[in-house]
Amino acid sequence: MGKSMYDFGKRAKEKARQQKQMDKASKRIMAKQQKADIKANTPNADSDIAEPELMEDGVKSNT
Q1: CA 28 to CA 38: how far, in whole Å?
Q2: What is the C-alpha to C-alpha distance for residues 19 and 25, in angstroms, rounded to an integer?
Q3: For 35-61, what is each residue's pLDDT tens digit?
Q4: Please, which pLDDT band fits residue 8 given cuts at 50, 70 and 90?
Q5: Cα–Cα dist 22/10, whole Å
Q6: What is d(CA 55, CA 63) in angstroms, rounded to the nearest whole number?
Q7: Short-list 26, 7, 27, 25, CA closest to 15
Q8: Cα-flanking dihedrals φ and ψ of residue 60, to 5°?
Q9: What is the pTM of this model?
């Protein structure tokens, strides 16, 4: 006798399940990387410090 069709379908289903898990994992990793890239491009605290200094200069020139 040969292998039954039941085993063949079961194997294909398991392979599809594993592939789906791998795809989901890779999407998760890509999303984390994109989120990290966005955070890296945000202005840092130094730019926040520079703004009040500009405001103080403007106040001094008006008085």
Answers
A1: 15
A2: 10
A3: 988 888 876 555 555 555 445 555 555
A4: confident
A5: 19
A6: 13
A7: 7
A8: -65, -40
A9: 0.50
